[in-house]
């Protein structure tokens, strides 16, 4: 059966109808090969683009991670300094109360009028600063951000 098809195809070379069909098959096969080649090239380009994007995103993640770690370290340092200052303020407030008690006793014993300063209660008025307002000194590099 296969030999008959081969004979038929070899015999059909002289027939113009079969020649046109064979030419169309050949052109379609060439077109399909070209289309497949373009598709493979397109997929390769997409893969290369994704690999480059992955590399860029990993680089960005490293930069952001360093930035976050630096900010967290700064936060921890500020939190530690704030805790120290809060403890110091509580200690000074307690010392002021103690001194005020001594002044009250001295006022009662001596009969002299002594001005006793009021101790601010930060819980009643948390928006008020319990100490006199003083200018805050800042250095030029205090607000520099070198995370990027």
TrEMBL record:
Residues 22-85 form the BZIP domain. Residues 14-24 have a biased composition (Basic and acidic residues). Keywords: DNA-binding, Nucleus, Transcription, Transcription regulation. Residues 1-46 are annotated as: Disordered. It is found in: Nucleus. The keyword Cell membrane does not apply. The keyword Kinase does not apply. One of its GO terms (cellular component) is nucleus. GO terms for biological process: positive regulation of DNA-templated transcription. The lineage of its organism: Eukaryota, Viridiplantae, Streptophyta, Embryophyta, Tracheophyta. Residues 1-13 have a biased composition (Polar residues). This is BZIP_2 domain-containing protein. SMART domains: BRLZ. One of its GO terms (molecular function) is protein heterodimerization activity. PANTHER family: BZIP TRANSCRIPTION FACTOR 44 (PTHR45764), BZIP TRANSCRIPTION FACTOR 53 (PTHR45764:SF34).
């Amino acid at each position: 059966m296969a030999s008959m098809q081969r004979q038929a195809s070899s015999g059909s070379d002289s027939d113009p109808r079969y020649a046109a069909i064979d030419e169309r098959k050949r052109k379609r096969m060439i077109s399909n090969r070209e289309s497949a080649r373009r598709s493979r090239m397109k997929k390769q380009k997409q893969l290369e683009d994704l690999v480059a994007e992955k590399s860029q995103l990993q680089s960005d993640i490293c930069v952001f991670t360093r930035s976050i770690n630096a900010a967290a370290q700064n936060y921890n340092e500020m939190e530690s300094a704030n805790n120290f200052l809060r403890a110091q303020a509580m200690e000074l407030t307690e010392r002021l109360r103690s001194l005020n008690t001594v002044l009250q006793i001295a006022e009662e014993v001596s009969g002299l009028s002594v001005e006793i300063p009021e101790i601010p209660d930060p819980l009643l008025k948390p928006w008020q600063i319990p100490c006199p307002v003083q200018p805050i000194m800042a250095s030029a590099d205090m607000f520099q951000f070198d995370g990027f």
